[in-house]
Each structure stands twice: as C-alpha cells, then as structure tokens.
Specification:
about 150 residues, alpha+beta, four-stranded antiparallel beta sheet
C-alpha cells in the first residue's frame, strides 16, 4: 500500500466573485454620480478623470480576480514528488524522483529584503514552493516536507 502526503496551498481570498462585482458596481455608480453632478454644475472636465479612475479600478479588480484561484499542490509518495502550480491562466506540473528529492530552505538577511524561500530539488531541477504562504508557515512547510521525504 502506498502512503501519500499532500499539501494544497491556496490564496486567502475573502471576496467572492459576486461580492467583488457588487463592490465594483457600487463604486462605478457612485463615481459616475459625482462626475455627472460636477458636469451638470459646469465642471465637465471632471468626467475624463472619473473615466480614468474607473479604468484603473477595473484593471485592479481584473488582476485580483485573475489570481484569486491561484494554488499549489504538492504530493509526496514512495516514487515521486509532484508539484502542480496554477497561476492565473498558466498551469505547470513538475515531477521529481523521490529518492533524489531534497528540501532547501533559504533565509535572506534581516531587513526589508529578508525572506524565507523553500525549494524542492532533485537532479539539477529546483522548484520554489510555498510562495502563497506567510514566512513562518514556509518554515513549517519545509519541516513537514523533510519529514515526508524521510518517511517515504
């Protein structure tokens, strides 16, 4: 019988698509109402800026929605380590041979650029995992992955 360890790492998205559309619609209506009120008062130059604001807002919501469903799936079994990553419209899958797989933990210097990075590596291939996690959770993920690789 084959034992399998699995981690699924997802973004913490608090806004559903329906809520996102409702917020965008209300901001759209409010901005247009103010823009039209100023235009009616003779300040028509406000309308192009309202349009720019709404275009920037739409772009921000689009980028948020595009990455809301990003995730990583890591599976360790007796034969292989599989890393499946979905980012925006792109999916990648990497398979590492389990006996050669190892966990590498990089910790940057303290300060603004100091961050923890976790890699799974085997035979010249190196894949960063846990990018959607907070730094303290990355350290825990590295520990759990090491235990899973030793147990398998």
């Amino acid at each position: 019988m084959q034992e399998r360890n699995r981690w699924i790492i997802k973004r913490n998205c608090s806004a559903s698509p329906r809520l996102l559309a409702l917020v965008f619609g209300s901001m759209l209506a409010l901005s247009l109402a103010f823009g039209l009120a100023f235009a009616a008062a003779g300040l028509w130059v406000v309308l192009p800026f309202v349009g720019l604001e709404l275009a920037a807002l739409a772009l921000a919501f689009f980028c948020y929605g595009r990455h809301a469903a990003d995730f990583e799936r890591i599976e360790v079994d007796e034969e292989a380590v599989r890393i499946e990553r979905h980012e925006a419209a792109r999916s990648t899958t990497v398979r590492l041979t389990r006996p050669w797989a190892r966990v590498e933990l990089e910790q940057g210097a303290a300060g603004l650029r100091g961050r923890v990075r976790v890699f799974l590596a085997a035979r010249g291939e190196r894949v960063e995992v846990g990018r959607l996690l907070a730094e303290d959770r990355r350290v825990a993920l590295a520990r759990e992955l090491r235990q899973a690789l030793q147990a398998a």
